[in-house]
Amino acid sequence: MKILVTGGAGYIGSHTIIDIIENTNHEVISIDNFSNSNEDTFDRIEKITGKRVKNYNLDLTAYKSLKEKFFDVEKDIDGIIHFAALKAVGESVEKPVLYYHNNLNSLINLLKCVQKYSVKHFIFSSSCTVYGNVLKQPVTEESPTQNAESPYGYTKLVGENILKDFSLSISEFNAISLRYFNPVGAHISGQNGELPTGRPNNLVPVVTQFASGWINELTVHGDDYGTRDGTAIRDYIHVSDIAHAHVLALEYLSKSFGELRYDVFNLGTGIGVTVFEVFEAFEKSAGLKLDYNIGPRRSGDVECIYADNKKARTKLKWMPKYTIEDAMKTAWIWQQELNLIRDDMVRPE
Ligand code: NAD
Ligand code: WQD
User: Fold this and answer.
1) Is 212 a member of any domain?
2) How far is the CA of 62 from the CAs of 43, 186, 228, 248, 344, in angstroms?
3) 236 CA distance to ligand 2 centroid (A)?
4) Cβ distance 80 to 60 under 8 Å?
5) Which ligand is nearest to the CA of 229?
């Protein structure tokens, strides 16, 4: 198949391109405007796989150029994996219109092109954020979705609905939304990982940057939750496991063409891990001690969420293989790489 990956220069998109190259014969092309990444990603992909991936530097929110500069040129796209989005939860609260514009118009423009150019398959990057604060754990795909806490989260909820309505409205097309839990870690080679822009908010980059001296404080956001050690529980899933699920999802879409119109899958390990357990895994992997402090709960955080991943295991034949220790180890190796390649760049703090 000829596959368009949007956001191919980003964290999950780049790992997925690597998996596609390593495990399939699909042709892969990227669209990324580098709003949260840069061209070096394609050098890293080439170093790991030996293949140079073509990227079109286009803004997906601009329909005319998307059509004329991409779809009129790259004929016969069979499938789209749509990662491109803005993803900073806090920023989305400050700049809601930017998030609604970028994330929703990108999706809508792609779907217009799907219709016009007869693309057959579509995979949408969704998030466990669509479940909000659910009491009953683990969450299944049947757990109710809730009105999102942030404009970012809302773009995922609305994005899923747009895709579902679209899928049911046209034939010769099928689509899947993948709800990622907490993607972490880096490629097993340590040569590709998440690129930090500004001060990170997510736990794993905070830990690795703190351990490297890029940031001065490591704060636990609350140790008074009703969990086994008082800190919040999440389902940290290795980015390469997430990446591989997209390859399997493409296979599933292709096999079920004509039968399945739309479906949704959780992508998590099924294991809930506390903040302190993440620290322990890091300390074990890096051989370092973390000197943290305890702060108040972070506004909008839920106490506990982890996935029931049975549906993805059964239908997609997906089996996550990396542990939290693997994730911390690879994230730490990647951080060493960042220490070198970003030496001449302005550090977050
Ligand atoms: P990322 O920021 O690393 O990658 C997204 C890429 O999309 C970036 O390279 C960016 O330059 C590009 N992009 C954004 N808007 C664009 C536009 N209008 N036109 C062209 N390119 C554009 O993010 P990621 O962590 O790889 O996330 C990928 C997807 O997964 C996103 O949709 C995100 O919302 C979703 N997701 C991420 C997480 C996470 O924790 N990383 C969790 C759940 C869901
Ligand atoms: C994990 C845990 C924090 C930083 C976010 C998005 C979600 C999804 C994944 C995209 C929480 C605690 C964190 C720190 C801490 N992304 N923490 N100190 O909040 O589960 O999910 O990323 O769809 O939409 O909201 O991830 O990594 O920020 O936090 O104690 O310095 O670590 O309170 O319990 P979160 P996270």
Assistant:
1) yes
2) 27, 31, 49, 30, 33
3) 10
4) no
5) 2
CA distance 208 to 195: 12
Inside any domain, residue 304: yes
pLDDT at 345 (0 to 100): 55
User: What atom of ligand 2 comes closest to residue 89's alpha carbon?
Assistant: 25
Report the C-alpha gap between 326 and 180 in whole angstroms. Answer: 18
Q: Based on the structure, what is the number of domains in the chain?
A: 1
Residues 6+ apart with CB under 8 A from 165: none
Helix axes 324-341, 203-211, angle to 10 degrees: 50
Whether residue 20 is contained in a domain is answered as yes
101 C-alpha to ligand 2 centroid (Å): 24
pLDDT digits (tens, 9 = 90+) for 60-109: 999 999 999 999 999 899 999 999 999 999 999 999 999 999 999 999 99
pLDDT tens for 173-221 read 999 999 999 999 999 999 999 987 888 999 999 999 999 999 999 999 9
- Determine whether the shortest distance from the Cβ of 186 to ligand 2 is under 6 A: no
Domain hosting residue 240, numbered range: 2-341
CATH number of the domain residue 299 falls in: 3.40.50.720
Q: pLDDT tens digit string along 305-316?
A: 999 999 999 999
